Each structure stands twice: as structure tokens, then as C-alpha cells.
UniProtKB/TrEMBL annotation:
InterPro entries: Cell_div_ZapA-like, Cell_div_ZapA-like_sf, Cell_div_ZapA_N
Keywords: Cell cycle, Cell division, Coiled coil
Descriptive protein name: Cell division protein ZapA
Source organism of this protein record: Parasedimentitalea maritima
Coiled-coil region list: 70-131
Domain of life (superkingdom): Bacteria
Lineage: Bacteria, Pseudomonadati, Pseudomonadota, Alphaproteobacteria, Rhodobacterales
Any single Pfam family the record assigns to this protein: ZapA
GO annotation, biological process: cell division
Length: 131
């Protein structure tokens, strides 16, 4: 079991940890030391036990605030997951049908030809009636 010396509030402490957890221990010690430094800067020198207690309480307060925020975020995530599941379960909307009239050019040409023939026939009928 590895032993490390951590420094908190300017004091060294010998601690043991599981193999492979050294970096986590050093990180936690750094967080505690940072809080102890804030206390030391604000209050000045105090007994070791009180300094550790106060620094621990400050970290516990921060941790509680983070846990509260995590609960809020998890609730929002659960709500979004539920909305997403509802959307996925909903039937797909009916596709909108749009009809676009398309008249092939041949039809237009044929209609123009028929109109010309009709006019020609009308002219012939008028000539015959006029005689």
C-alpha cells in the first residue's frame, strides 16, 4: 500500500492509499488544501483539527451544491429523454400531398393545332352561310 505525504494548510500528513489511487488522493488533498488556504487567509492561524473541520465543511457544502445541480440536470435530462421517446413512438406524419399541374409540350401544341383547325372550320362555315 503506497504512502504519500500530503500538505494541507502548510502541514504535512502521511497517508496510505490503495495502489493506483495516488493521483486521486493527491487531487483530493489539493482541494482540501485550497479550502484550508482560503480559511488561513481569512481567519489566520487556527488549530489543525479546526482547520481540517472547517475546510472539510466548505468542501461538503460545495459538494452538496453540485449534487443538487446534478439532480436538477438529471431531472431535465429524464424529461428530454421522455420527450424524445414520445417523439420516436409517435406515428410519422402523413406526407403532405402537393399536386403540381404539368402539361407536356405536346398537349399544348396539339391544343393550338386544334384551335387553328376550329377557327378554319368556323371561317369556312361563315363563308358558306354568307353565300
Amino acid at each position: 500500500m503506497p504512502e504519500l505525504t500530503i500538505h494541507i494548510g502548510g502541514r504535512g500528513f502521511e497517508v496510505s492509499c490503495q495502489d493506483g489511487e495516488q493521483s486521486y488522493l493527491q487531487s483530493a488533498a489539493k482541494m482540501l488544501d485550497d479550502e484550508a488556504q482560503v480559511l488561513s487567509d481569512q481567519i489566520g492561524r487556527m488549530p489543525e483539527a479546526r482547520m481540517l473541520l472547517m475546510a472539510g465543511l466548505l468542501l461538503a457544502d460545495k459538494t452538496a451544491a453540485v449534487e443538487d445541480r446534478i439532480k436538477i440536470v438529471e431531472a431535465e435530462l429524464a424529461e428530454r429523454d421522455s420527450e424524445l421517446a414520445d417523439l420516436r413512438a409517435a406515428p410519422a406524419p402523413e406526407p403532405e400531398r402537393i399536386e403540381v399541374p404539368v402539361i407536356p409540350p405536346q398537349v399544348t401544341d396539339t391544343l393550338a393545332e386544334l384551335a387553328a383547325r376550329a377557327e378554319s372550320m368556323a371561317a369556312e362555315v361563315e363563308e358558306k352561310l354568307a353565300k
